[in-house]
Amino acid sequence: MKALWRLTKGKPNMISLGNGDPHYSLYPVKKIQYEVASAAEDIEDPVAVWTAAGPSTPTQLFTSSRDEPCNLSLKTALAYSAGAGLPEAQRAVTELTKFYHSPPDHISTLTVGNMDGVSKCFRLLGSPGDHFLADEFSFNALTNAPLSHGVNWVPVKIDKGGLIPSDLERIMSNWNEETQGRRPHVLYSVPSGQNPTGCTLNADRRKKVYELAQRFDLIIIEDDPYYYLQYSEEESSGTPSKLMPSFLSMDIDGRVLRVDSFSKIMMPGMRLGWITSSPLFHEHLVSLTDSSTQHPHGFGQIFITEMLSASGWQISGFDRWTRSLRKEYQRRRDLFLDIFAREVSSAGFASADPPQAGMFVWIDVHVRKHPRYRCDIRDSEGSIARTNVPELMEELFERCLDSGLVVMPASIFVAPTSPQVSKILDPEDPIQDRVNFLRTTFAGDESSMQPGLKILGEVLKEFFQEQK
Amino acid sequence: MKALWRLTKGKPNMISLGNGDPHYSLYPVKKIQYEVASAAEDIEDPVAVWTAAGPSTPTQLFTSSRDEPCNLSLKTALAYSAGAGLPEAQRAVTELTKFYHSPPDHISTLTVGNMDGVSKCFRLLGSPGDHFLADEFSFNALTNAPLSHGVNWVPVKIDKGGLIPSDLERIMSNWNEETQGRRPHVLYSVPSGQNPTGCTLNADRRKKVYELAQRFDLIIIEDDPYYYLQYSEEESSGTPSKLMPSFLSMDIDGRVLRVDSFSKIMMPGMRLGWITSSPLFHEHLVSLTDSSTQHPHGFGQIFITEMLSASGWQISGFDRWTRSLRKEYQRRRDLFLDIFAREVSSAGFASADPPQAGMFVWIDVHVRKHPRYRCDIRDSEGSIARTNVPELMEELFERCLDSGLVVMPASIFVAPTSPQVSKILDPEDPIQDRVNFLRTTFAGDESSMQPGLKILGEVLKEFFQEQK
After folding, report:
1. Pair B396, B390: CB distance under 8 Å
2. Which GO biological process categories is it annotated with (chains A, B) (predicted)?
């Protein structure tokens, strides 16, 4: 039917008795107005001004109207539209993507948020029995998504520099299609401030991973919601932020599907993001959208169109906001790490690397120092734990809960694997022996950092200093 | 992870360092305001007042704020939430559903619109190789959706009274699991103002279909976006509208998943709807939502929560709006049919039954009167056309296009079938011989009715009065 529409829309002055779209005069809405933070040029640090929140805090209005001129009229914003989104909104995110990534030859497709974007990529690229590659610790809600379509995961080792290219190479070189099925053709990775480990793929590895993708013909799903939250040396203002080069920026082959989101830099409940890909993938993503979620809601399309327009923040204001937000999160990170040093790591039972992006601190619990630690457990399969790290960590997690503290145990982030995959895992280094981490965040309520980390420090002391 | 959250949320005074939710103080939005039509008690016919649209047209404001009291604060509306939607929004649609359907024991799950709702039901209930039952003419964007999961369609005959129960019974009774695979366990149907035929399932058939569903253990997906647009005798005001009883209202077994939408009664770009089902299906729908679209956008949840609240329209105002809207569409329908009688049917080459609901007029082209009509074509398969109706209708469709008119040919709405299904189709009455219909609508721009139908009348005359 969409093809039929395209057929007819090429002709001028057609009269349509075809589509079941209610007429805009019957939409009961006349005006939608968002009162937002000002990101005007004279405000250098808009997030600081916003969070100071006095009665005179400057605001701006993003307005969409049915009758008055605006960037995206309610007449079209609240009508049905194509799967890719309204041209105005699509143009807005395309310009934004150009500004930060200058992709070679790509096109943006709107989504209803990051999860929708990633899960659509999974559906588009995966068939039952396929294996996808992923960071060995990954956000479980996402790695669970394609299991119901029969897609399996192959974990690639990560360290604080992100995904390890040599491990990726090892897996791809040693893959045996006869015993393991089709060789993986998709790599799913969160390159900045990875969830849950907080690690950021360094620039050198990004290049190497892209080269490996070329060599083994891998499609890369670049899931990058924390891209704008990269922390580094002082930045010079005026020029574009110094952010790590994305896979998209180096994608001369059209093998990258980059998934972007406003959730972490604006508000999660907005549920609007976008995928940037080659025109070929775009076309399929639009078809998939047309037969699943349909195009995103007009409300969010209005918001981003107005935000990025000349009467809104524009890209320059958006850039001021995200820089300022980086500063704010860097402050929170440093505050968290200070308290962590005082309350937790000083006792020597845990440590953490400062994350260079995102919201997560991946706490390394030195569980091998625990009096009940054992490393003499052997499993015939070779793929499950040879130590009692999982049991000790579960005990620690429960002790935290009993003391009133919620942290996320690493075990829940272990990417689920299939029997075919176990052959490729290192039997001397099973992931279950490396679940001695806790995911914590500095994104939440600031006032919970001190009491939360105090509890953690106390629980760890009690846990480690028990009598043998 | 959701299970873990449930575990921890039961405990009071927990401190969380767990979730990566940005703090609301960093959302750059302070207030969202929707200026909408008034549906106050003293306005009996709010749609008429609204479309008259003078400068003094009364409006109401639906407002959500970060700092001021409101029904759904931006603090929660713009945060992450559970897959079913925010409790406030979920409660709003639950109350609405109770008012119109009084379902026995059901619960509502928010969706990002009708297509999302229906396609989630398909994904939840269908496995590769399954057969679902559907009205023989169905909205193709929907029947296409589950094909990629390997679900096939079994068409059930319809007439102007909707789906024919005896045909459903015939299919189910004669199904042979050995040659045809698993017996269908799902019936997908649009009971009111069906798209594309405009037919409405009459009350007697609704009961019979539900009984057959009980007898053959069918799950019914009741896709009912035109429910509120049912046209009938004058209604008494004050009491709930006399609308056809839904499958949901009679669902003592929990076998109905009812899909509702605001698209046709408010605005399509809102992209917010809901599914009402048994608690068991609800639980699975929430899981599916958590790993695909996630919960719907906060903007729409604010809108419906405010709309149905005491400071908004309330259910009574919503009911006034939809009654008034019915009146408006009934007026449009009658106008369309008047013009149709004058410009088209008077010549005797086409006719149409007045639809009792929805937006569509299904024009019956009397193609058997065409000088080039043939009925002597035999196909060994028995399942494809024995006449040249498809060819003639395609020619007519193209002539319309060439004359500047877009109408939808019936052929594009034929539910796609599998080879296993062809055995159950009536070889003496293939659907391809019955594609002599055009879907037209009275929902669009009123000013296009007269010129559009004039073209149709002229094209039909030319087409039928050609020399043999």
Report:
1. no
2. alpha-amino acid metabolic process
> What is the distance between the terminal CA atoms of chain B, rounded to a whole angstrom?
72
**For a pLDDT cut of 90, what percent of chain B falls above it?**
84
Residue from A15, A441, A445 whose CB has the most chain B CBs within 10 Å, to mutate: A15
Number of domains in chain A: 2
Report how many Cβ contacts below 8 Å link chain A to chain B.
325
Range of the domain at B126: 74-232+239-316
* Residue B211 distance to chain A (closest CA, Å): 31
Per CB-CB distance under 8 Å, the chain A contacts of B145 are 291-292
Task: Say yes or no: B306 and B327 in one domain.
Answer: no
The conformational region for residue B242 under phi > 0 = left, psi -120 to 50 = alpha, else beta, is beta
Q: Is residue A184 part of a domain?
A: yes
Q: Terminal CA-to-CA distance of chain A, rounded, Å?
A: 72
User: How much is the pTM?
Assistant: 0.94
**CA trace torsion B276, B282, B287, B289 (10° rounding):** 0
Residues A264, A356, single domain; the answer is no
Task: Pick the last residue of a domain from A286, A320, A354.
Answer: A320
Of B289, B267, B286, nearest to B278 by C-alpha is B286
Q: For residues A283 and A371, state if they share a domain.
A: no
Q: Are B327 and B311 contained in the same domain?
A: no
- Specify the pairing of strand A158-159 against strand A162-163: antiparallel
pLDDT tens-digit map of B319-375: 999 999 999 999 999 999 999 999 999 999 999 999 999 999 999 999 999 999 998
The answer to whether residue B347 sits within a structural domain is yes
- Quote ipTM for the complex: 0.94
Whether residues B180 and B311 fall in one domain: yes
- Phi then psi dihedrals of residue B100, to 5 deg: -90, -25
Let me know whether A302 and A316 are in one domain.
yes
Q: Which residues pair with A163 in a beta bridge?
A: A158
With an 8 Å Cβ cutoff, are A15 and B404 in contact? yes
Q: What is the CATH number of the domain that holds A86?
A: 3.40.640.10
**Token pair 């105090």: residue:** A454
Asked if B21 and A295 come within 8 Å (Cβ–Cβ), the reply is no
pLDDT digit string, tens, across residues B360-407: 999 999 999 999 999 888 766 555 668 999 999 999 999 999 999 999
Same domain, A339 and A304: no
Cα B156 to chain center, whole Å? Answer: 18
B227: left (phi over 0), alpha (psi -120 to 50) or beta: alpha
Indicate which CATH number applies to the domain containing B339: 3.90.1150.10
Written as six digits, the tokens of A69 are 């001129």
Hey, are the CB atoms on A268 and B32 less than 8 Å from each other? Answer: no
| Residues of B whose CB is below 8 A from A449 | 17
Are B35 and A31 inside 8 Å of each other by CB? Answer: yes
Residue of A nearest to B414 (CA): A1
In a domain, residue A364? The reply is yes
> CB distance A32–B35 less than 8 Å?
yes
Residues A227 and A368 in one domain: no
B61 belongs to a structural domain: no
